[in-house]
Structure formats: C-alpha cells, structure tokens
Write a structure and sequence with these properties.
- By secondary structure, the chain is an alpha/beta fold.
- It folds into three domains: 108 residues, no CATH class; 175 residues, Rossmann fold, CATH 3.40.50; 160 residues, Glycogen Phosphorylase B (Rossmann fold, 3-Layer(aba) Sandwich).
- 47% of the residues lie in helices and 11% in strands.
- The strands form two sheets. The protein has a six-stranded parallel beta sheet with strand order 2-1-3-4-5-6, sandwiched between helices. A six-stranded parallel beta sheet has the order 9-8-7-10-11-12, with helices on both faces.
- 42% of the residues are buried.
- This is Glycosyltransferase involved in cell wall biosynthesis.
Length: 493
C-alpha cells in the first residue's frame, strides 16, 4: 500500500492542475489545491499571489450576489494559501519581509475590506460581570485547545504559590455546538462587523466567566478569535502570544478591543504582530518569560569539549542548518578539532520530491562525514549532552525565544546566535540575549567561536552563560512576573 502513495499524490497534483482551468466551483478548488501542492514542492515560487487574487475575485463575486457562505469560503482559501507554512517556515517569510505588501490584496478586496477593515459596532460589546468580592486567591480560568505543553508548568507553579485557584477549559471537550470550526469563526467575524450580532457563548464557558477574575487564552490563534467574538465577556480577558500565531491570519481577525492585556515572550514576534495587525496597537502588552521545560539544572562542571558545537533542532528549513555547516567548515580551516553535534529528528529518507534545500543539507553532511558532524536524533538526555558541549549555536531564519539556546546557556554553553533574518527588522535576538552574542553572517560567527573558545577566554564565557540563564529564567522571578501580568489591575503589570 505504501508504494501507492506516490502514485496517488501525483494523480492528485495532475488532477488539480487540470481542474484549475475549469469554470465554477471545480475550477476554484483546482486553483486552491494546485497552489498548495506547488508551494509544498517549491516554497520559493511567487505565482501563488496570482492564485490568491483569483480566489479573492471569486469571494467578491459571491459576496456581491448575496452568497455569503460561499464568499467566505473562497476568502478562507485565499487566507490558507497566503499563510501556507511552506511560505513562512521554510526560507524567507513574505509576511516578515514586508507585511504591507503581503497583506494588501487580502485587505483591499471587497471581502477583505469587510472582514479586516470594518469597525466592530460599539453597541455589540457585552457587559462584564460585576467585580467578585475580594478573596485571598485569584480565580484564573485558562482556555486552550490540545496544546497545553508550554502553559502546564506555569499553571503548576502558580497553584503552588497558594495565591491562585485555577480552572481549565479544553475547547475540544466542550459539548456539541461548543467550539466552532473555522468556517463558523469566519462567519462570526462577518456577522459581527456587518450586523453587530455576536456568537453564542457555550454554557460551560459562561459559567467560567462568572467564576473567574481573569480569563487567559493560551495560543492567540483561532481560539482567541472565537473568544473575542462571543456575546459574553469575562471580568478581564488576557492571552499569551507565541511565534506561531504571528504567522496565522487569526492575528488579523480578533476583536482586539476585547483584549485587556496580551502576554508575549519575544519582542521581535510582538513587533511583527503589531506591524501586520494594526488592531494590536492599543492592546496593553507585557513581556513575560518561560519556565525551562527541563529546569535550570545543577551548576555545570568543567569537563567539556570547548571545540564541540551543538545545535538543537535542525531538520526544518527555517532552522537553516546550512549556515551552521558553513561555519563549521570554515572553523576547521583554523583548527580541525572543531566538530558539530546535531540533536533532534534528522532528515527523512531521500525521495524524488525532496526539496533542493534538503538535498544540499544531505550533500554537506556527507562531505563532512559522521566523525565531524554527529547526528544524535531525538534525545531525552539533552541537558547532559549540552553539559558536554562547548558552545551552542542558533542558525535560524526566525525564532520566538529559541528555548534551546537558553537551555544551552543554563548548561554553561556560550551562545553564537545568528541575527535571525526574518526577525532582524523587528528587533532580532538582541532583544532577548546579549547583543555581543549576535552575529550578522557566517564570518562573524566564525570569529565569535574562535574568540569564545580560546583557552584563556572560555571559562569566563561559560560562567557568563550560566549566570544569564539564572538571571532570566529563575523560576521565582518568572512566576512573579506572571503574577503581576495576570493581575486584573491594569497598573499592576
């Protein structure tokens, strides 16, 4: 059966290329599917914009004929192509490169003017519950969908303070007709801006609003859009914003005025979000940190190979391990003791459809050989591996905080951090890490490594790395910042 998948994939691709020439709905779906297939095969192609324009024209025609549901479906197809992960998680993101140009067609078409430019009717804003009588603990309601990985350690720490009582709502566990699908969320946005009608609040959510002092939405994507469109309001609504959400269309679709405070972990991501979604301009925002998933660990020992570079996460194109491999190649012209340790899932078995980027990575790895580049795959003993290494490197095109860098610092690994190209215009990693750790290109990275790994310099650099992690990720400090941010008092943040 596995042998049939390539044949089926080729058949689907060929069928969609043919169907896009047909009139009506079949032709529109052909445009959509062929665009997605072509982007997956070649993220650098630019003709996707023509496909977006074609789908937006269909959306506008449907809307002009009073076929609202059809118009919104075509508009959503245009959004899905524009925000296809292949465009933003591979090489250079067109959204990060130029938000105004990237969003122009989506905003300026007739459907986009309604969806993204229309004001929310003031009369539609729901009343908030009366303040809850003062208690000795803050009632915090957390709403999320499936991915609780990052928030769970924080909630455990807040509970441990004794100052929070926390309830959780998993939206996928709501009864039937509780959490809507994407089509209904888009329709909810349309109905709100055109008629002032809001989406009904499920009873379980309404009960949570009555109980909570603060509602926190984890992940500011479609769940937050839905929450801001509901016909009930909590006493205070906050949300946590990660890198992922900046590269989804939902950052544009919230009723931003409903947000009392937004908690973000990475200034470059927040700056990009504000550039792309003007609705965020008036939202109060507070920078917070993350608790390291594996903790800070014990003080690192002195037995380590200072010539061993380490990178955690390298398979995806946005990680741009080719940058690291070029740095390594040049370092070895100075000293052949330099090696690289790659931690995380490796390349899949080669196929005819493999991207040109992955072919180049495979060729560079083969040229350097396993004695020079050690591929460890997914590991559970990452802190121990970091403690053996000499230096941690970030070669990415874009990141939020790049948590593995902070893990490396905690293990006493000095960092070499590329000035992430897609984040450089929004502050870059220098807003999170020491500016002298940030390098602009391969040659600057080579010089940074040579300087830091010099025998007389390395011990101090390793201590500096550990001290930075202790200062910025001490659990008590991180939790105290969240306590202030989650206060319903605007002045407390």
């Amino acid at each position: 059966m596995a042998d049939l998948w390539p044949l089926l994939d080729r058949a689907v691709r060929a069928g969609s290329r043919f169907a896009r020439r047909l009139p009506g709905t079949v032709g529109g779906m052909g445009i959509y599917f062929s665009a997605r297939h072509r982007l997956a095969a070649d993220p650098e192609r630019t003709d996707w914009r023509e496909d977006v324009d074609a789908l937006l024209a269909r959306a506008d025609r449907s809307l002009a004929r009073g076929r609202i549901a059809a118009g919104l479906r075509w508009y959503d197809k245009a959004l899905r192509i524009s925000y296809d992960p292949s465009l933003h998680q591979a090489g250079s993101s067109p959204l990060a490169a130029d938000p105004v140009t990237f969003l122009r067609a989506l905003r300026d078409c007739a459907t986009g003017t309604i969806m993204l430019r229309s004001a929310v009717p003031a009369a539609s804003v729901p009343e908030r519950p009366a303040p809850r009588p003062d208690g000795d603990r803050t009632h915090l309601l957390v709403i999320a969908q499936e991915n609780w990985t990052f928030i769970r350690p924080l909630l455990d720490a807040l509970r441990a303070t004794g100052r929070f009582e926390i309830r959780e709502i998993e939206v996928d566990a709501l009864p039937d007709a509780g959490f809507p699908d994407r089509d209904r969320i888009l329709r909810g946005r349309y109905d709100l801006v055109t008629t002032g009608v809001r989406m009904p609040t499920p009873p379980g959510v309404a009960d949570g609003y009555d109980w909570a002092d603060v509602v926190l939405v984890e992940w500011s994507h479609h769940v937050l859009t839905w929450v801001t469109l509901l016909d009930r309001a909590p006493r205070a609504l906050m949300a946590r914003f990660h890198r992922f959400e900046a590269f989804t269309p939902f950052a544009l679709l919230h009723d931003h005025a409903r947000l009392d405070r937004l908690l973000y972990v990475a200034p470059p991501v927040w700056n990009l979000a504000r550039a792309a979604a003007p609705g965020f301009a008036d939202v109060q925002a507070v920078q917070v940190g993350n608790l390291l998933a594996r903790g800070l660990g014990p003080a690192p020992g002195e037995e380590r190979d200072r010539h061993l570079l380490v990178q955690v996460g390298w398979r995806r194109e946005v990680k741009d391990v080719l940058f690291t491999l070029e740095v390594l190649t040049r370092l070895r012209t100075h000293d052949p003791r330099y090696r690289l340790r790659l931690i995380g899932p490796g390349l899949a078995a080669p196929t005819a459809a493999e991207s040109s980027y992955h072919r180049r990575v495979r060729a560079r790895l083969a040229a350097l050989g396993p004695e020079v580049v050690e591929q460890l795959g997914r590991r559970e003993d990452v802190p121990a591996l970091l403690a053996e290494s000499g230096l941690i490197i970030s070669s990415s095109r874009h990141e939020g905080t790049h948590e593995s860098i902070m893990e490396g610092l905690a293990a006493g690994c000095p960092a070499v951090i590329r000035d992430w190209p897609d984040a450089a215009d929004y502050g870059g990693p220098g807003t999170l890490y020491g500016s002298d750790w940030v390098v602009t290109d391969v040659e600057a990275a080579v010089q940074r490594v040579l300087e830091v790994t010099a025998a007389e310099r390395y011990p101090a650099a390793a201590r500096e790395a550990r001290e930075f992690a202790l200062a910025h990720r001490d659990p008590e400090t991180v939790v105290a910042a969240y306590e202030r941010a989650l206060s319903a008092d605007p002045a407390a943040a």
